[in-house]
Amino acid sequence: MKIPILVKSRELNKYDRLLFEFLQKDERFEVMIVRARKNLGLDGILVQKEDGDLEVKIKSSAVLRSELQRSKVPTPRLYVEMPFSLLLFEETERIIGEYGFLGDLHKGIESFVCGDGFLVSDEVGIKLRVNNKKFLNLGKYADHPGEEGVKIVLNSRFSKKELKDWVNENYDMIVYFVRSLPNYSPRTKRRKNYERDRLVVYLKDKWTREWHEIADKLEKIGPAVSEDTLQQAYKDFPSK
């Protein structure tokens, strides 16, 4: 299996070169790459069979936002929109599960699965961890049991520029995961009437009051609230 190498400098480390020479002859690695492409609907991308000398190309370090926005469907690119990027992430994690020593080359495997070649770069030790009902297998998030959220985990030292570059490159994925969380955190300043709405949920769920009864109760201690507003507040409350 031919593995085209994409580097962001003019040289490939001699140890990496030897590693990829062996990977090109690794039948199990080829099987996993082919399976990942099939699962992603990328059957049209063929694995080249020539195992000869490594083909090393210079890869631009800049990724344009316009390129991200134009990627509407699964295509042989490194950066594509969700949910394809999520599926690609999961397929890559499956490969790394068996080839753990390639864990720092996550983006490289993604790019090779998509057909662009294997991107070799110094990846920063920054990862995403997500915990909510929709994504149960994207790392651990256990600061507070039962709390949903998206966490950025820092695994190594890094520069300010590396952090900014990482956020820019992963912004679409972060936004995608955040959109699956509740609209508002319980105490955020963006959410008005939190205490009132919590009371509404309590009266409706535990005391099974009708909407007009709840409205009457609230009017005795504050401004009048319509039944439609109460129903919407009940629906949007973070605990739901």
Would you kindly provide a brief summary of this structure?
By secondary structure, the chain is mainly alpha-helical.
Main sheet specs? 3 strands, parallel
Mean pLDDT: 77
The number of helices is 9
| Strand neighbour order, sheet with most strands | 2-1-3
Low-confidence stretches: 61-81
Number of domains: 3
Radius of gyration: 24 Å
Query: What is the strand tally?
Result: 5
Helical percentage? 40-55%
Structural class: mainly alpha
Alpha carbon gap, first and last residue: 51 Å
Query: Based on CA inertia axes, which overall geometry fits?
Result: elongated
> Which percent range describes the beta-strand content?
5-15%
Order of helices and strands: EHHEHHHEEEHHHH
What does this structure look like?
The protein has 3 domains: 1-121, no CATH class; 124-181, no CATH class; 194-236. 43% of the residues lie in helices and 9% in strands. The protein is built from 9 helices and 5 strands. The chain has helices at residues 14-23, 27-39, 65-70, 84-98, 106-113, 160-178, 194-206, 211-219, 227-236, and strands spanning 5-7, 56-58, 118-120, 126-131, 149-154. The chain starts with a strand and ends with a helix. Residues 61-81 have low confidence and may be disordered.
Task: Output the keywords.
240 residues, mainly alpha, 3 domains, two-stranded antiparallel ribbon, 9 helices
